[in-house]
Amino acid sequence: MTRIVAGESAVPKRKRAIEAALAVGLVLLIVVGAVVASTVSRNTEAQAVEPTPAAELKLGYFGNVTHATALVGIREGFLAESLGSTALSTETFNAGPAAIEALNAGAIDAAYIGPNPAINSFVKSQGESVRIVAGAAAGGAQLVVKPEITSAQDLRGKILASPQLGGTQDVALRAWLSDQGYKTNVDGSGDVAINPTENAQTLKLFQDGKLDGAWLPEPWASRLVLQAGAKVLVDEKDLWDGSSTGKPGEFPTTVLIVNQKFAADHPDTVKALLAGHTKSVDWLNQSPAAQKASVINSALQESAGAALADDVLARSLANITFTLDPLAGSYPRLLQDGVEAGTTKQADINGLFDLRPLNDLIAASGAEPISAAGLGQD
């Protein structure tokens, strides 16, 4: 029964009771909805950022002896085995800028490359494109010239080649010529003409007398010396005193880079790639010379279409150090060389390196960590 008080009807009281019940119900619905929404949001965010192994890793490299870490890693199966369920696909390039274009376009996810193209990509993207995750090779670049050229003074008016405009050897050549008092321009004009030319074509042009010399990585420097009669005017190792790296005579020639977004989405895949890379470097430094030459030549036959003569390969390998250290301390100078050569812009390259996954692997072996020299994370 409903008790009715004098002066008050039953209807308003029932209305207030219903309104109160509805208010309580609404509050409960809001609370429950908020909890559900929060849970869904957290789950969605977790799904969005949860890193997973990549289904495929697309790797770029060159058919050069300076990329022997890639050649061996692919040929001996170190990379594929370490990647496990992630499929490995590969693509070969002739020079760094072309590989960078492919990486920025998403055609490849990681690449073995020279340091200057990596710097250029980092600068142009304002730090958003790539990270250097390991070193691969140091040394193995020379300026080789016609026998009658005996000093820098003989180069005025001559025609020299480099693998590609803005590549590591191109920048090194322009920086050295500047130190000798010569002016060069990216359009090929200047006191010394520099014609960026594909390496195999450089050999042919030199043999035909149409080039006076070239600043080249191995095995091309050795090929011009042993097969075309060139002589060494500058061995780049003599230009590095070790003041920035603690390693006199060593300068970065090849490093391993990864697309930054790929690295963020698939950190375990990057670490697996580095595990295979580390095995490849170890194999190159521990294997007998004959075995090393045989495997590299077989890999060159597959990737570049031709093996090297024994003397060319032996000379090339003697000029190269295979190392996990990217020699980060040398990068301010490499950047400045590129700025002065007109192939890159002045910029802050802090953040270029992420050596944490590599150092995690190194720590397991008890070795000392590798430094990013204040230019990233280590």
Describe this structure in words.
- This protein is α/β, with parallel strands linked by helices.
- Helices cover about 45% and strands about 15% of the residues.
- It has 14 helices and 13 strands.
- The protein has helices at about 10-50, 70-75, 80-85, 95-105, 115-125, 170-180, 200-205, 220-230, 260-265, 265-285, 290-305, 310-320, 330-340, 355-365; strands spanning about 55-60, 85-95, 110-115, 130-140, 140-145, 160, 195, 215, 230-235, 250-260, 320, 355, 375.
- The strands form three sheets. The protein has a six-stranded mixed beta sheet with strand order 2-1-3-10-4-11, with helices on both faces.
- Helix 6 links the parallel strand 6 and strand 7.
- Helix 2 packs across helix 10 (about 265-285).
- The model is unreliable at about 1-50 (pLDDT under 50).
Topology:
Layout: H1 10-49, E1 56-62, H2 68-75, H3 78-83, E2 87-93, H4 96-104, E3 110-113, H5 115-124, E4 130-139, E5 141-145, E6 159-162, H6 168-179, E7 193-196, H7 199-207, E8 213-217, H8 220-228, E9 231-235, E10 252-259, H9 260-265, H10 267-286, H11 289-304, H12 310-318, E11 320-322, H13 331-341, E12 353-354, H14 356-365, E13 376-377
Parallel strand pairs: 1-2, 1-3, 6-7, 6-8, 12-13
Antiparallel strand pairs: 3-10, 4-10, 4-11, 5-8, 5-9
Helix pairs in contact: 2-10, 2-11, 4-5, 5-13, 6-13, 7-8, 8-12
Structural class: alpha/beta
**Main pleated-sheet profile:** 6 strands, mixed
Low-confidence stretches: 1-48
User: How many helices in DSSP terms?
Assistant: 14
